Amino acid sequence: MMAENILRKLVNNSQAAIDDGVYDIDVKLQKSDKDFLQIIKSNKHATLLTEIKFSSPSLGKIRTLSDPDRIAKQMIAGGSKALSVLTQPHMFNGSPEYFMQVRQAVDVPLLMKDIMIDTIQIDAAEKIGADYMLVIQSLFDQGFLKDIDEFIKYGHKKGLKILLEVHTKQEFQNALKTESDLIGINNRNLDTLEIDLKTTERVLEGHKKTRPILSESGIETPKDIQYLKKCGADAFLIGSSIMKSDNIEEHVRKLVNAY
Question: pTM value?
């Protein structure tokens, strides 16, 4: 029961943000000319997609709101190859404005991290210079949204690559049938908000590699990264443990050098 409640809350949140005009954007920023998939293939170290987020439903406030562009530069100085920036205002304290600040400050690939439920958000992603957008498989599997293929196609038409997020083996199988560019395995269970790194292992068990896999959530130490790499992850999305750190650049560097 709980699952549906949290997902419903996330969908309602996005609807509220859409109704509030959060995604009515009047700029056109350039995206990065760097290719994250290429970077994943050629990087000898751990490929990190680090996340700029100030709050989350599970942790509440993570860091005092401050200039996201400075944080972005510290992450990149530490060796992060791409950034995720939250644009969802409700519950996550994000905004398209922060995203635009970061976009204008750095030239790495950026993921617009939001609960995408409507093409108006995809249009916004294109305008603010996102390279990637997030699509959540369970929203389609559980009937909150219809036709994932159309949604992904629209994103591609707008020049965006798709990070498709799954949590279970079944969602993963469904995700493999889509045209998504990158599949993310979220170690966080959206029903309970609990994190289990073994999720990545369970989902990838017996799977033959067909596209790059990103492991997300709960990654705190170089050891975590080494373990997830062994399970078959190619890149790692890390947010909270870095955002809580006193020395972001140093913390990122340690994780990047996990291998």
Answer: 0.94
